[in-house]
């Protein structure tokens, strides 16, 4: 069985290089460019016939373009005789469109999963999906890996939080995983409904007074949830030294502005998507390359 | 366009009759029996050619048998020229197997959804699914209806609860829907993790002291969650007059024993699965026939 | 290439163990249980990544449950990285629903075959299918093995029949296979139509007077066909010492009562489904483990 | 709903015209020709958009060419907007390849069924299939009609047979259907196995001495089975005035020679495939146009 | 049958409005926006149940985003009960990736066609595809319409060309269609290979000396082909008053600069993609709304 | 990994033998015959379980029969456990039906590609397809090889042409490939449209006066295009010594008559289809066995 062939789309080439180094292989040669009219141009330059191919592509915004790039890479690999094509998607765009609430919406996560299958991709590696139920959108096998352990490890090295805080009800299970790693209690911030007509307010459940919180979530997008949670924690009397931790650091829209207004000691995240440059934030980036390289290594040996 | 043809499997024939009455149609004639060796015997006796067929079958335990019965009904209908086959599944078995946690498990909800599609069923009507994300398991259109309004309406007619309680974090959104209907505040019982090594305890978030609680969930199965939640509420000082409300009343295993030990005023549920006979519980059963008839009527006119 | 991984559902675990012994492998570890609500719980405990997996599950009644169990086992194996999943189904339920006669019936054998394919099963091993045409229901490769040789061998060791009898027209080809193995003539019992309006009667074609018959069929279900054939043979003057032989011994409904009324020397069958306990019948059970182990061995080496 | 659009391939255009007349419609205009290199040229000249299209094509030899012609007709119809495409196949080639016997053979009937589905055909009408189990090869709905009633009716008008004879075990059920129509007894010719090593001989079961036989089968191909059966009947003392009846009259290879050597009163068959010209046989051809027109009419109204 | 429901993605909303006006219907209400993280947000606000839905979306660059938007619109429509979903794609991105030349490339046109099918789209309307062979990438019906007639009509109204010129060999058939409409001769510019080692040169075939050329192509992208052709024509002695005509006016990259250097009387194109604003070109835009409205009208009545 | 197993259908068995020799393997044993009724009879006699199977079958006329033969061979191989089935189709029938021009035609190339996929074929090897865009009809990987190099090589050995001529616009790219191999200039014959109403005439572009032309095309079918091109070349003053070269020599209908009227020095073609016997033409046949053997060797090692 030949070594795995790792190819990287343009969504995070430096992570691709890091994974290749961790695997001890050269990254596959391929042209990923644009034609003059803006259409994606792909040409694989490594031999792929009979190879076990891994395509690294986090589908961060603009997810349509990165998704199509991945689809075209997979098409080229499959038509050129790849034995198997695995999409390595450390960030899975549209994971949050995993249910229909209002009625006439799309079910975005399933639609994207169907596109991936239509592209002839055989298998997906995902990292800290927004929800584990997203796997139900896939018929093909999905390998779900996590950055929680290395993130918790880095937090332990750098900080001394005394409570892990889930910023809303959706992250409670994630917070419990951090808590187990760090041997800490959990607190939860949640929007409480006061009555049928009254507006809701954010309440903190758990002992946070005087504590140094580590607020965790799967991603920091606009930082709205994080920001509101930190404010609720401060009102509840926590120490004005907060650490944020999330697997995916998108930092879009008003994120930087919101975060810069908070008393943050550190923001710990990964390179699942490229980290922002010169953000002014006390940003600590843990690489997911070891976790992904380990997964690729495990998958390619079978 | 001809009237819809409603056929009922053997999982809940009396609900089938109730829906037919609500639609103002005769229920379709079909033999649903067993051969001497125990294999399911199906023979449709109504003409189905060109008809818009609705198969009522909640896949309650033994879900494999009821599912196969539905598959065979659908096969008979499709091969006999039905224009479209819609599975009406007020209870959807295996909905709780909607993610893989331990690793080498099946993703049961997706496996069942794939069997339904393989059977040539065109569309599904579900009622108060365990989680809205189950829709992601389906490629075919799923019409998701709810018994929350009629259940809340019946509670309002019969009881005077002063707080809606979610018995765990998973039912908070459902509790908020009841709260809106009844113009009440929400409280949440949740298992709190005290530290990395300490065992967790159930805490109540929200004002429940002296209140008369309405504890709501999507289903009552073994009643373990409900029972623990009521005990936590009592410890937190609620009135010893509790009403339970759930869309699906399975009451399996130790359910009756657990519930009979609680100070219950009333247990309100629906006929999505056949209600237990002579249970000794103060059971109030709201029929989902109007909700399902309305959905069938709406779907069949388009 | 690694050794095959044999997993057994709950339909016939002792056969699973026998096959594993014959293959010289340990049977794969997996939990096949029920949740409190009766839903099937599966957890594979052996590593399956990259393995060639064989799932033993005869889909005897209740076939829906055993089928769903097999589907969930296959889903778990496939999602956990099995290289290939082969269903080993020594008894294939619903094989007799292989045509539509009355019109608005299902085509059960095809419906079941489609469910098996939808589950991501790659290949099926079947044993003495009710009819070889059932293979047409499958797009995936079906390996059809037979217990006729070991059954005939055991009969030869134990008995001295002088004629092989097919109890109806459907089993004539099977009877001829036994006759070749045992070097005996064939007789046929068949329902003869006397005229357009007269009822039919069972006639015996072939010399049976004074003979010691071996009546063979693919299965003994309610034993109705066998019982009527033996009575016709006795009327035709055969010796009152009859041996019955069938690949599948279901013995359902009135089977035991019917058989105990006949002058049987022996009933020879296999463990394709678990043999009845303490039946009072002179039952001789030949194991199909060697035949199935041989098939698995052959399939797994390619 | 518009009238059905009937198109005919080149396998039996006169039957196409007869069906059109029976339906009271003009047959659809289409070019079915050959390019100079022998490839099939299709051009539909009637408007098909939104129409319910019926393609008449018995896949008689050369079945590959007639099948491909039907596939191309279906492709043209589907791409041009046909609402639904039904293949009307009064003769279904490769139906006898419905099981695998020797091992490394194809399962021809299933392979053909899969090609039909791949062509985008929605539904099939078949007539007196070699075996009803062929329906299991199809996932799409198959409407199985029969020429037995009109054939029996014509026999009744022309002849006075006194026994219906099945020429082998495979046609017994068919013989019983004729017997019911004609109120006659049934006899069976079958190859009897004398012992394990002796060769078999053809025996007649049932009273045929002095009788006037009507020998029935689904098709007359090389007439080998028919010829051997008639010889066995004559040896058994039947009257030397035999009528043969079969739904499909292929008359290939040595058929004419074999049949001309027999004391035949009449050979009754249908125009499911074009009848042979100037055969010298006392051939009576019953048209299946009424049966097929009735089926199309029934299917197109739903 | 209800009126067609026309929905427009964000790729060309003003064309959507123009088609709606031409059809005499209100355009369907739907939200097509972006979430703060850049992911596409879709919500249909018109009732779609049972409707025949047409999604207008030319997949111009960034084609990945517009394609995904169309996919999500289709998913929402299908899951909400649309009877049929037709993608109206007056510009079909990636049509030029219709073959693999260098080896390890993708077959982009087929990959995109497969994504469209995976999205549950039933039918496509395309306009002046780069090549008619792109239809082979689609299994679903493709309605191919053309702007050649209205473009030629507008040219006739505005200009007096005396020869139609194809700027390369690929556009010769298109040029002939214009020539037939305008009753003009055709000339061809093509790259001529002088020998095995010499570089090629552009030659003009046909009489262009002193003529007023109308140079036609399916699209103007970077204007490289057009620019080289005009230069060749000028060298060959044509009048320095050239009209360009193309169905799709992308005008990307150096297009404006190249075109502004040419002696152009007019550039005639359509609104298949939004026309450039304030281009400085003598641009004449013919709307394809009538052609598309006519196609939708024709398709929706069947 | 075992050696590839090469099986040959009946369309070109001598090429099959030549490829086997080139690969250094024995050709696989299989029966490819006809039943008495004309239906194809297939029985594989080599073991195929786990083998990498290559089916040689150019689908020359009658393409329907040869295609079905290939489908049945593939079905037998797949059901008998072949690891992978590759169709080696040096001539691909229906490649010219690669677009719909008149409207209600089939898209024959796509229809055939869909049949091939439905047969369970995993991969296709094609040789000098009529157009590279035919690959878009296939979802499965297509390996496109060429006989241009060996054909040019043989021409170089035998003749001294001084110009490569494309007989119409469709073969220009092919002519350029020959020109590169032979280091010659290119000329093009094309039908020129003189005006909107005038009929077209064939013109020659490029210097051919006094030249010795090599006219190349992908195939010679009825030889109409070749014949007209040679006449145009002669009128343009080329030497009356013309060489024709094409990958596929079908020579159907009036081909021989047309070619015998031309001043041909030689007609160079391949054995992609069996060469005509005793044609009277100065025919030189280059075997494609080396090219195909090389492709099989390359594909089977991966």
Structural overview:
Six copies of one chain form a homohexamer. In chain A, 30% of the residues lie in helices and 25% in strands. The longest helix of chain A is centred in the first third of the chain and has 17 residues, at 63-79. In chain A, 59% of the residues are buried. Chain A folds into two domains: 5-146 and 290-300, Rossmann fold (3-Layer(aba) Sandwich); 148-271, 3-Layer(aba) Sandwich (Rossmann fold), CATH 3.40.50. Chain A is elongated. Chain A has helices spanning 13-23, 63-79, 108-118, 148-158, 172-182, 224-235, 255-260, 289-301, and strands at residues 5-8, 30-34, 40-44, 52-56, 84-89, 123-127, 142-145, 163-166, 186-192, 201-205, 213-220, 242-249, 264-270, 283-286. The mean pLDDT of chain A is 94. The termini of chain A are close together. The interface between A and E is large, with 54 and 52 residues.
